[in-house]
Amino acid sequence: MRSRRSSSWPGLRPSRSPYGWASSSSSGHPFTPPRSAWPAIAASSILVTGMSSLLARASARGDISIVGPVFALSPIFTVIPDAVLSGTLPSPLGWFGIVLAVAGTLSLSGRPDRGRLRALLGRRDALDALAAAILLGVLSAVDRWAAVVLGPPSYLACSHGAAAVLTGVISAVTVRRGLVELATARNVATIVAHGVLGVTGTAMQTNALTMAPAAYVNAIRRLSAVVAVGLGRTLFGEPDLGRRLAAAVLASAGAACLLLAR
Questions:
Q1: Which of the two ends of the chain, N or C, has the fewest CB atoms closer than 10 A to its terminal CB?
Q2: Taking the C-alpha atoms of 20, 25, 26 and 30 in order, what is their torsion angle to the nearest 10 degrees?
Q3: DSSP three-state, residue 151
């Protein structure tokens, strides 16, 4: 990754704890008031809410063997926002990784006698996953900039707090009385598990963003596309495992090239 402009952030050290605001005392980062970073916090809450909604809808209406690998394209959409905010662009190996990722994703759907791109764009779940990937690409660049400015614990606390408030308001307006009916033990357990895993994963990613360009961090996290294909077959009996797995591996190889690019 080549830097177009130099930037330094004196006094900032990466957090070693994966747990947001609770790690302030152990990470060496005191809590920092947002101040000029408020726009990034607001943008983060909006982006993560939109991304999560699209991803949930894609998973509900389609199969995760398609949704997972398409969502894995998000590093591609990190390049331009990261260049704007942090002044970095992919190296030749990074661009090669983008080509591999696109090729792998296009081979996820479509029969031999049909155009693969047309088949992919004809799937509602794939379109939702693609939109979510675009939002995640922008979100990763915003997260990197704000995490370096505020420190991972402070940014994680502010961004998650803002996202929680926004989600609560949307739920109260759209669901209203249905919230009580949805509060079953199974749903609550699912939401809690999702929250714990989400916060932990995001905290680790936010910490990593202070040490590496956003496209690299996003790329390595998207390697879960291969796992998504296997789970889709195992849990839901989704068909055509061989072709989808090969496509997911190809897309992940592109992500790995982005990760290894210098």
A1: C
A2: 70
A3: coil
Q: How far is CA 164 from the centre of its chain?
A: 17
Do residues 251 and 100 touch, judged by C-beta distance below 8 A? yes
Beta strands in the chain (DSSP E): 2-3, 88-89
Backbone φ, ψ for residue 88 (5° rounding): -125, 150
- Please check whether residue 262 is in contact with residue 1, taking contact to mean a CB–CB distance below 8 angstroms: yes
List, for residues 199-242, the tens digit of each pLDDT value: 888 888 888 888 877 877 877 776 666 677 777 777 777 777 77
Segments making up each domain of the chain, as ranges: 36-260
What is each CA distance from 235 to 223, 229, 231, 239, in whole angstroms? 19, 10, 6, 12
Among all chains, which residue has been given the structure tokens 């081979």?
Answer: 107
**What's the sign of the alpha-carbon dihedral 25, 30, 33, 37?**
negative
First-to-last alpha carbon distance for the chain, in angstroms, is: 5
Enclosing H/E stretch for 112: none
Assign 2 to helix, strand or coil.
Answer: strand
Place of tokens 């496209």: 215
DSSP state of 19: S
pLDDT tens, position by position, 140-192: 999 999 988 888 888 988 888 898 899 888 888 887 777 777 778 888 898 88
On whether the CB atoms of residues 12 and 151 are closer than 8 A, the answer is: yes
A 10 A CB-CB count for 35 gives 8
DSSP letter assigned to residue 10: T
Pick the closest to residue 201 from 129, 125, 133, 140 (CA basis): 140
The pTM score is 0.70
Q: 2 has which bridge partners?
A: 89
